[in-house]
Every structure is written in structure tokens, then in C-alpha cells.
Amino acid sequence: MRLSRSLYSQSEDTTSTSVFILNYAQCNGCPLCWHALTIVGELTMKFVHAFYLVNVHMDTKTDPSIVRNVTRRPQETRFLRGPQSRFREFALAWRVLKEMIHGFRRLHFVGPCVTIFGSARFREDHPYYQKTVEVAAAVSKAGFTVMTGGGPGLMEAANRGAKQAGGHSIGCNIVLPMEQEPNPYLDTFVDFQYFFVRKLMLAKYSYAFVAVPGGFGTFDELFEVATLVQTKKMEEYPLILVGKDYWQPMIEYIREVMLGQGTISPVDVDRFVLTDDPQEVAEIIRHAAINKFGLKEGAWKPKWWLGERRPWNI
Q1: Please, is 100 exposed, middle or buried when counting C-beta atoms within 10 Å of its C-beta (0-12, 13-18, 19+)?
Q2: N or C: which end of the chain has fewer CB within 10 A?
Q3: Residue 138: how many CB atoms within 10 A of its CB?
Q4: d(C-alpha 128, C-alpha 245), whole Å
Q5: Is the pTM of this model over 0.90?
Q6: Residue 276: how many CB atoms within 10 A of its CB?
């Protein structure tokens, strides 16, 4: 049964900071500081909004189409056009901060996770779908929360496997123009506007990363984690590739071309584990988490006086 969207979705009011921050303040540090930050942020955003409307109104005297372009262009697209006004860039930074705090608050008590990357395009009748269900079930039985991008396809298969095995299932959903909806096998999910914030959440809480077959998004997520491990910005968590027939050509390219040309080191190739055995996946993850990273059984307890709570009853 899917929980109500209202419990976990981001506030739809993108112009007000007070509604959001007052709900998720007191996360860390002094509550009075958070409330002061809220007031300052609200006043600043009102000033930015007023300044923005004045400028648009002045511009539309000569070109009325500006209003249509501004209202239809996604925030991310505007941001990536290059330098913007200082006020607009501050407003974007504030929205990103809100989204990060939202993610931290919702995911703080989900427990040790394993993130599974995979395509949204494979359907239930595809062999990769069933394989992903089996892998996620084995990971869940090993004691880990399964985290995915929260969408359809193999993300749905991973969340489904976790639920069927009696484990916990998390989704970090991205808001897209085609309205990607969270799949029905989630205990909780968080909606994100920004891809980079979503990828941060997918990496922050996990002790291992499993990639099942996927496209550009899967490759992006997988190689970002590989880069963080390579540059020692992240611990050497297991990087497991499930689907030998799909991933073997990529591994051969990495070994023969990239390693052959000296753009990477042998250890960078050896970090990838290629397997189709769900039990082997679970054993590799559990062994690394306990013996290499010191993971112990138990859970952090929410503090009621900070307004904290678990996303499910344990």
C-alpha cells in the first residue's frame, strides 16, 4: 500500500520559504538560529520576487513575449544558460538549500541503504525486471533498505523485490516534464526538482551501489559514484553490475581502451564486480558493510523534541 503523497512530498509553494523551513527547521543546531534564518530568508525572497516582477514588467513594454518565455522555461534551464542576476541566482541557491534540507529530514532514519540504479523503460515481462526483483529481495533479506530513483521499470522492480521480501523500500523521485510518478512499491519517497540534489541523496545513505541495465541516467549515476570513489571523496563501497551480457562490453571497453590508453588505473577497473547471482550480490554487500565499514545492527532514534519521526514503524 502506497503512503499518502502529502506526508512525503515537497511543498508545492515554490515562492515561500517560511512554510517549508518552519516545517523542517530545528534539524540540527539551535532552533532560534533556524527561525532567524527563516525570517531573513523570507524577507529576502519577497524582495527578490518584487524586484523580478518589476524587471519583467519593464521588459515586456518592448517585448511582451518575454513573459511567456519566463513562465514556460524550467528553472534548471534558465540557470544553465550562464550567469544570471545576483538576485535570481541567490533565489535558486535558496531553493536548492530548501530541497536539500527536505531530503535530509525525510531520509535521516531510513537505515543503511543499498542504492539500485536501472532503466525506467523495461517492463514487467522483461527478464531484467525479474532479475532485479530477485536481487533487491536478496539485498533486503540481508538487512538493508533498498533505495532507487522511485520511478517505473527496473526501479519499480527493485522496490517491488524489497517489499515482497518484507524489507523497506525508498524512492528519490525526480520531477520531470513527462510527470514521472513514484511506483506503487514504496514505503516512502521524496520528490526532487534538481537532479544533482537527487543524486546526492541516492549516494549519501548507501553502503553499496548496484547497477542493473539502464541508459544515460544509469551510466551517469554509476560513473559519478565511481569517480567519487576514485578521487577518494567517498569510501570504497562495492560497485556491483548485474547483467553480464549487458555490462560485459562496457567492462571490456574500460579495460582495453581506457586502461590501455592510461586514462585510468587497474584498480579503477577492479572495483566493478560483475555477477548475475542475487545471493552473491547480497553477500558482497553485507561482508563489506560489516567487516570493512563497521556497520552494526541497531538504529538511530528520533528525538521528539526536534519534531523527528521514522518514515515507518520498526
Answers
A1: middle
A2: N
A3: 22
A4: 11
A5: no
A6: 15
The DSSP secondary structure of 79-96, one letter per residue, reads HTTS---HHHHHHHHHHH
**Per-position b or e across 33-60, b if 16+ CB within 10 A of its CB:** ebeeebeebbeebeebeeeeeeeeeeee
**Own/partner long-range contacts of 234-237 (Cβ < 8 Å, ≥24 apart):** 234/203, 235/293, 236/271, 236/292, 237/206, 237/207, 237/208, 237/209, 237/288, 237/293
Distance CA 24, CA 211 (A): 32
Q: Give dist(CA 79, CA 112) in Å, integer.
A: 34
Taking only the tens place, the pLDDT of each residue in 44-76 is: 555 545 544 444 343 433 344 333 333 445 667
Q: What cell does 216 get?
A: 544515460
C-alpha distances (whole Å) from 157 to each of 124, 132, 149, 152 are 8, 6, 11, 8
Q: Which residues lie below 8 Å from residue 128, measured CB to CB, with a gap of 6+?
A: 118, 119, 122, 154, 157, 212, 213, 243, 246
| Cα distances (angstroms) measured from residue 300 to each of 148, 186, 292, 310, 314 | 22, 21, 21, 10, 11
In tens, the pLDDT along 154-181 reads: 999 999 999 999 999 999 999 887 657 8
| Per-residue buried b or exposed e for 247-265, using 16+ beta carbons within 10 Å of the residue's own CB | beeeeeebbeeeeeeeebe
C-alpha R_g of the chain? 22
Work out the angle at residue 286's Cα, subtended by the Cα atoms of residues 225 and 246, and round it to the nearest 5 degrees: 50
